[in-house]
């Protein structure tokens, strides 16, 4: 007998289930926490990078500023191998209009007796009319150097001599004679053409000062719209120098907040000294008529970064005049913390801040260096 079997029951497939809504929400929350953590780490690293970059920026600017001013100071008083006392002017050079700036006029440009000179910081630029009031960082010092060279040119190379950028040139024979003449004028015969070591050098006048902005705009005066935005103004080391059109102002390096100078002098009774017996402010040197006795400059600079730290901030004490008594009107020491600024011992000066960011939110670096006026040292008999 044939039996018909009933169809067998199919094997049961395993049950397939997904995440529950609660599990999915938990997973999403955990994922968001991980992603948020990674974003915070990236943001923190980015912030640390920019702050480190700002610190490097200030150190680099300090090195550049100190090197540039130091180079000029070491050249100060070079007159082609002669002392300044024997340098003469031709009539054309003596009567030429070299500058139309009041305070820094042609007579000031030709003032060879002050081959190294300084002005103490104050509430206004010390040479009235030379630099606009809005282009001066109050309380910062001003430094002036005069020299020629350093590379001499054969006086017979007329086209090369005529191409020199300075409107005044010096013809000098080492240890013999020297005369300043106007560019385009025939090279003077004093010293004579037969003199040994006779060369022509361009005449330089350089005035260093601090300006509260980098780009003074179309009107040439630091204002609310300069450097792109009033909140973005950057204090800048400036140089006023002599070129074929007169005195021109040009930025040297951004981020220099303060500049102070002390001047090392020798005793008049011992003119052969090569080490300063004391350091004085520019005001004290001027009051004592001691500029001919200056043989060294102690230069203090502070550079400030442009990236604010929105977190903890920075603290620092900046003493730029270590040889002056704290009671000296020209001394400068100021203290910056994340929450306060004390510039009472640096009269007239206000440390850099920007918008809602206080001074303590910006990294700073300082340097105090001593530079010998080597041409005066070498001229000691």
Account of the protein in words:
Strands 1, 4, 5, 6, 7, 8, 9 and 10 form an 8-stranded mixed sheet that branches. The protein contains 6 helices and 17 strands. The chain has one domain (51-378). The model has no long low-confidence stretch (mean pLDDT 88). The longest helix has 55 residues, at 21-75. 21% of the residues lie in helices and 28% in strands. It has 381 residues and is an alpha+beta fold. A hairpin with a 4-residue loop joins strand 15 (333-336) and strand 16 (341-345). The protein starts with 20 loop residues before the first helix and ends with a helix.
Tally of strands: 17
Low-confidence stretches: none
Amino-to-carboxy terminus distance: 145 Å
Sheet-strand content, in percent, reads 25-35%
In one word, what is the shape?
Answer: elongated
Mean pLDDT: 88
Helical run tally: 6
Largest sheet entry: 8 strands, mixed
Total number of distinct structural domains? 1
| Residue share in helix | 10-25%
Structural Rg: 33 Å
Oligomer: single chain
The assigned structural class equals alpha+beta
What is the ordering of alpha helices and beta strands?
A: HEHEEHEEHEEEEEEEHEEEEEH
Question: How would you describe this structure in keywords?
Answer:
21% helix; alpha+beta; 4-stranded antiparallel β-sheet; 381 residues
């Amino acid at each position: 007998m044939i039996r018909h079997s009933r169809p067998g029951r199919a094997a049961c497939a395993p049950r397939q289930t997904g995440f529950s809504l609660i599990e999915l929400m938990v997973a999403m929350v955990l994922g968001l926490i991980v992603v948020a953590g990674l974003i915070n780490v990236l943001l923190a690293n980015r912030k640390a990078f920019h702050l480190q970059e700002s610190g490097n920026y200030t150190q680099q600017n300090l090195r550049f500023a100190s090197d540039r001013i130091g180079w000029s100071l070491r050249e100060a008083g070079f007159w082609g191998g002669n002392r300044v006392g024997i340098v003469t002017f031709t009539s054309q050079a003596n009567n030429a209009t070299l500058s139309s700036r009041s305070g820094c006029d042609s007579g000031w440009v030709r003032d060879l007796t002050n081959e190294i000179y300084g002005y103490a910081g104050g509430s206004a630029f010390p040479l009235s009319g030379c630099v606009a009031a809005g282009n001066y960082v109050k309380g910062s010092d001003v430094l002036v150097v005069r020299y020629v060279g350093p590379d001499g040119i054969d006086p017979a190379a007329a086209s090369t001599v005529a191409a020199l950028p300075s409107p005044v040139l010096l013809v000098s024979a080492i240890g013999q004679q020297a005369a300043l003449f106007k560019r385009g004028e025939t090279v003077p015969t004093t010293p004579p053409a037969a003199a040994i070591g006779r060369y022509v050098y361009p005449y330089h006048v350089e005035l260093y000062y601090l300006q509260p902005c980098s780009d003074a705009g179309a009107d040439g005066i630091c204002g609310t719209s300069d450097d792109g935005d009033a909140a973005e103004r950057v204090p800048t080391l400036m140089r006023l120098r002599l070129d074929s059109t007169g005195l021109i102002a040009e930025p040297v390096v951004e981020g220099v907040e303060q500049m102070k100078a002390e001047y090392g002098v020798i005793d008049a009774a011992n003119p052969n000294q090569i080490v300063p017996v004391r350091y004085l402010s520019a005001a004290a040197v001027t009051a004592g008529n001691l500029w001919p006795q200056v043989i060294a400059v102690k230069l203090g600079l502070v550079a400030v970064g442009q990236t604010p730290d929105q977190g903890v901030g920075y603290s620092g004490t900046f003493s730029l005049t270590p040889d002056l008594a704290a009671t000296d009107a020209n001394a400068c020491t100021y203290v910056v913390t994340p929450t306060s600024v004390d510039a009472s011992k640096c009269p007239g000066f206000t440390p850099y801040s920007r918008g809602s960011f206080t001074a303590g939110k910006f990294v700073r670096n300082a340097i105090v260096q001593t530079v010998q006026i080597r041409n005066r040292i070498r001229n000691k008999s």
